[in-house]
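Lecture 7 notes: from sequence to structure.

We start with a single chain of 286 residues. Read the sequence below before looking at the structure.
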Amino acid sequence: MWPLMLTVPLVLNDSRNPLHYTKIFPESWYTIDDSSRPKPLGLCLGLITVAVGQLLCLFVFFFFKYGFMSQNGEEPLSIQKRGARTYDYLEGVTTHLSQPEGFVLLGGYLTGTWMFRLMPPAYYSFDGGIDYAKVFLCLVIQDGIQFVMHLLEHSVSPAFYKYSHKPHHRFTNPRLFDAFNGSMLDTIFMILVPLYATANLVHCNVWSYMAFGSFYANWLTLIHSEYTFPWDQLFHCLGFGTPADHHVHHAFFKYNYGHLFTWFDRIWGTYRHPSEFAPKQFNEGV
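Now the structure, written as tokens:
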């Protein structure tokens, strides 16, 4: 599933493919010039890349949740012992996609920063392919800044926390569709500020930006899952964030502030392994 999140940039950037971007779009749509406004092709392709990744995640999660991908056809192991919340899948999808503090605000940020030329010049370039080293660096830096912002939201001011991050913490046993369900202030402070800072620290081309955006948005969604995934044990070994790691934060509030990685929590001393820290709360093996 993870490589398929990059379907759009992988297909459009393959010169052997009849769908290579130079074969289906006029050159004037992707060449860089001194026009007052950047061309929207890169922006549109980036938004489509994230959308395709989201649809893939939702599609796979449906079959995973309802036991179609398990040998016995049963619901997968829930992270918390009290079990996963029951809900209608269509309601979950509708809630997830309609949150104004989620994709609406993110889409507005991406459109505004792109069309008003607020991104570094490298981001508008179609030259080259996906630079995976830069994509990974973006994910690490984004998560590092987001970790700091998250920690500050919890500790700087009770009044600020009440209006920013507390709405998201009403979910003590989150589901996949709670990922962007919070407040506008929370999204701005903990997602948009780190996004813009990361963009100015790591200068990617348009393909790498697409890859980073898809990985980031979908990983942030997946860590809110109410179930463990087949790759979670490997992720634990590598220090990558898992749904169980994030459930610790939602259940206890003061641990596991990181999202994509556990490295920053380990450095700060705030990481707690789910089943080892609270065996009465979390199922063994999560």
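The chain has 13 helices and no strands. Keep this in mind for problem set 3.
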